[in-house]
Amino acid sequence: MAELKMALGAVADIASGKEVADGVNKILDNLNGKKAYPKYFKRVAPGTSAASGDLLLDLGGPGVGESWDVRAIVVIKTDPWTAGGANEKAGVYIGQGFASFAANAGTAPIAELEDAGQSLPYTQHYVRGQLYVVYPNHIYVVVHSPAATTAYDAIARLVQFPPFKGEIA
């Protein structure tokens, strides 16, 4: 940072070339839709249940080097007037795939469960760090004992953090 002394004793602070470039880039990023981290957003996973078995909804996962902090998950029937299944429940799972779901004929394995609700609509809020997802994992929601051929939505409110660059501040 350069200083310029004036004749009357006042001091003017003049930005360096790097500071000007950083400021201009920040303005351009904001104009181009790039926001600073953390980024707050939501994901929706719609799905329709089969005649029998559980329904798997994939809310996706963060990109390489990124992480998501889950703040809320809601599971609802798309048509709230449709009667529910007798034991309709929702479970939240985090993992790299859900091969065990298919292997168990549409039944979610309890060992991979992160959180569960006893009825629908399912609404759960989380504090920072309570439910954390890193690449290559995904967030899965399983609707247990859904009403046959009924449409459901899983909605997640998420916070995305910047890619880790190997530096700890």
Compute the number of structural domains: 2
Structural class designation: mainly beta
Rounded mean pLDDT score: 78
Order of helices and strands: EEHEEEEHEEEEE
Q: How many beta-strand runs?
A: 11
**How helix-rich are the residues, as a percent range?**
10-25%
What's the helix count? Answer: 2
CATH architecture call of the largest domain: Sandwich
Question: Which fold name corresponds to the CATH topology of the largest domain?
Answer: Jelly Rolls
CATH class of the largest domain: Mainly Beta
Low-confidence sequence ranges: none
* End-to-end CA span: 23 Å
Largest sheet: 5 strands, antiparallel
Question: Which shape, going by the Cα principal axes?
Answer: elongated
Could you explain how this protein is built, in words?
This protein is mainly β. The chain folds into two domains: 2-31; 39-161, Jelly Rolls (Sandwich). Helices cover 12% and strands 41% of the residues. It is built from two helices and eleven strands; from the N terminus they run ββαββββαβββββ. It has helices spanning 17-31, 99-103, and strands spanning 2-5, 11-14, 39-48, 55-58, 67-77, 89-95, 113-117, 122-125, 132-134, 138-144, 151-161. Strands 3, 5, 8, 9 and 11 form a five-stranded antiparallel β-sheet that branches. A four-stranded antiparallel β-sheet has the order 4-10-6-7, with no helix packed on it. A hairpin with a 5-residue loop joins strand 1 (2-5) and strand 2. The longest helix has 15 residues, at 17-31. The chain is elongated and about 85 Å long. The model has no long low-confidence stretch (mean pLDDT 78).
